[in-house]
Design brief:
It contains five helices and nine strands, in the order αβααβββαβββββα. Strand 4, helix 4 and strand 5 form a beta-alpha-beta unit. The chain is an alpha/beta fold. The longest helix is centred in the first third of the chain and has 19 residues. The chain starts with a helix and ends in a 9-residue tail after the last helix.
Amino acid sequence: SIQADMENLKEGHKAFLSEQGDWKPKKLCTYGNHEYRIERFENANPETHQTFTLQRDEIFASFGWRTVPFGEIRYINGVAVTHHPVNGAGRAFGGKLGSTRVANETSCSMISGHTHKWVFWPSAKIGPNNGVDIMEAGCALPWGEIESYALHSTNDWWWGLTVARLWGGRIIDVERVSMLTIRDRYSDDGGDTRK
């Protein structure tokens, strides 16, 4: 239910905040298609206009997050950050060559996450901007979990945290930390994933 999702969202933010300590990062969330389901529901049920979207946005704001509406792009040090890049028809680039097509079409480096894959694709260009970097950052589901809608498709998902340094419109450093490593480092559930 939407309300259960809202409670889960609060709990996730509380857990993140409890581990944050004195660190005060700038926090930005690009809403994806899962968050956009609330807009779609409210559009189909006009009597609920801003009932759930306002609640969602207030939860993010109360934990110090700025948000980017679904489909929009924010630029950080000249790098575009979005849930997913879209083609001329307004559809997400996808398929095995999706990253290559994005690299061919974009004039700036871009980070996205819609595919749940981990991809880093530098693409050389002719001219003063000598290249762009395309990165798909994976997903934060538990290691190996695949959503039911994707069970019978080629997916090659990657589960974990991606840390990137952005400078001069390029992705300079990239660190991948799998959910297995995160669990080994921070979980007290007794599970050892190094087997």
